[in-house]
Amino acid sequence: MKITVIASAAAAIILLGIAAANAHHGWGSYDAPNPVTVEGSISESNYQNPHATIKVKAPDKEWTITLAPTSRMASRGATAEKIAVGNKVAAYGYPSKVQPNEMRAESITFEGNTYQLR
Amino acid sequence: MESGSGLLGAIEQSWLGVAARESVWLYPSANVGHILGLMILAGSIALIDARLLGAFREMAPGPFLRVGRRFAIAGLLTMLLTGSVLFAAEATHVSANLIFQTKLALIGTALANVLLFELFVARQVRIGIAGVTMPVAARLSAALSLGLWLGVATAGRLIAYF
Description:
The complex is a heterodimer. Chain A is built from two helices and six strands; from the N terminus they run αβββαβββ. Chain A is of the alpha+beta class. In chain A, strand 4 and strand 5 form a beta hairpin. In chain B, helix 2 crosses helix 4 and helix 3 packs antiparallel against helix 7. The longest helix of chain B has 29 residues. Chain B is elongated and about 55 Å long. Chain B starts with 5 loop residues before the first helix and ends with a helix. At the A-B interface, helix 1 and helix 2 of A face helix 2, helix 3 and helix 7 of B.
């Protein structure tokens, strides 16, 4: 009986450990060793939870850029007005290994100010 | 936000779905509440199952289970309430997630296990006195319960990674 409880607890810890090893959720599926900077004008903006997202028209293609939860966006100064449609931004981050044209932004730059999103 | 069609799309466009996405505090609060609910649910279930498997024999199983069950139900209701907020925010996305589907199946199986226990095993357990070894069916049900709910918790944490 004791063994059952201990074994179950150990199994849970191992599984949660695997989850924690990804550091932040979803980052495992992003190409961290090959960061990119996407520059262009915002064609779509969703200032919402669990993550804000924008679409940016870059010269080569239109990127979907995943940002941060709105509470963090606000506390870092990256308010909804700064990622409004039509604004020119540069997003530095990691392209998705799963979804083409999608990236996760580490930071975004708007009018010379850089906002860290991690 | 690209919304799905049908029922899932309707859930996303409902006031709850909109509020979950637009409000700064609702989604994070539901997220925190979901984990607090999990602590209460998993903690009480672990104690109940440990008792059925033979721990804390000095305590009579009837009252022990009755108290434990109150906490388990409170935890489960908290999780359902907060979980619906998290779900409504991105119903289409989450529903397509294999880990989420696995989690729902595990919850269904775990609740079926509770029902079977209540129907066929609980009576025997309740009349038991302190120190008595639980019937095999009770121990089996408890081991199954422990595994299933740990699976539910694990799957829940893993949804965001896949």
